[in-house]
Amino acid sequence: VQLQAFGGGLVQAGGSLRLSCAASGRSFSFNSMSYWRQVAGKERELVARITKNGIKSYADDVKGRFAISRDDAKNTIYLQMDSLKPEDTAVYYCKIQFSSRHSNWGQGTLVTVSS
């Protein structure tokens, strides 16, 4: 199963962007899909997760501003990012967790928020 990421780019503070991540390949089951982000020199951090049952969770600093969703027909997840801040600038990665031990990462997509 491969993940292909779309979206990202440059936006002014207060603006919005939507990321998407499409899974393709053989039929699969999974536990969750998620978005992470990483700033140079720092560890990758979890931004938002949606479980196979549709339960959503968010990092504290994006709650109320970001929304994760999933389109099962398209095997795609979305991250709607509103009220963006310069500190949201990072490379964003999507991840699919097949089991407790197996996962795949998508390629990163750069989000830059200018002040």
Name a few traits of the molecule.
mainly beta; globular; 7-stranded mixed beta sheet; 115 residues; 11 strands
Describe it.
This protein is mainly beta and 115 residues long. 0% of the residues lie in helices and 55% in strands. The protein is built from no helices and eleven strands. Strands 2, 4, 5, 6, 9, 10 and 11 form a seven-stranded mixed beta sheet that branches. The mean pLDDT is 95.
What's the short version?
This protein is an all-beta fold and 115 residues long. It has strands at 2-6, 9-12, 17-24, 32-38, 45-51, 56-58, 66-71, 76-81, 90-97, 103-105, 109-114.
Task: Summarize the helices and strands and which ones pair or pack.
Elements: E1 2-6, E2 9-12, E3 17-24, E4 32-38, E5 45-51, E6 56-58, E7 66-71, E8 76-81, E9 90-97, E10 103-105, E11 109-114
Parallel strand pairs: 2-11
Antiparallel strand pairs: 1-3, 3-8, 4-5, 4-9, 5-6, 7-8, 9-10, 9-11
